Amino acid sequence: MPIFEYTCNQCKQEFEKLVFAGEEKNISCPGCNSKDVTKKMSAASFMGNSMGKCATSSPKGFS
């Protein structure tokens, strides 16, 4: 369930939206409720080198 960035073509507000499968066509601007929105191109972000480590290690004090 990725978070996408959008720009409203009516009021020019920029916003982020958590998009579930099948909801791509039901995105509306939180400012003016227009469905005339454009998905922005954005870079992916990852949390450092933690990819794949969360299932194999635990914080100190937890076992």
Automatic annotation (TrEMBL):
Pfam families per UniProt: Zn_ribbon_8
Putative regulatory protein FmdB zinc ribbon domain span: 1-42
Gene3D superfamilies attached to this UniProt entry: RNA polymerase ii, chain L
Protein name: Putative regulatory protein, FmdB family
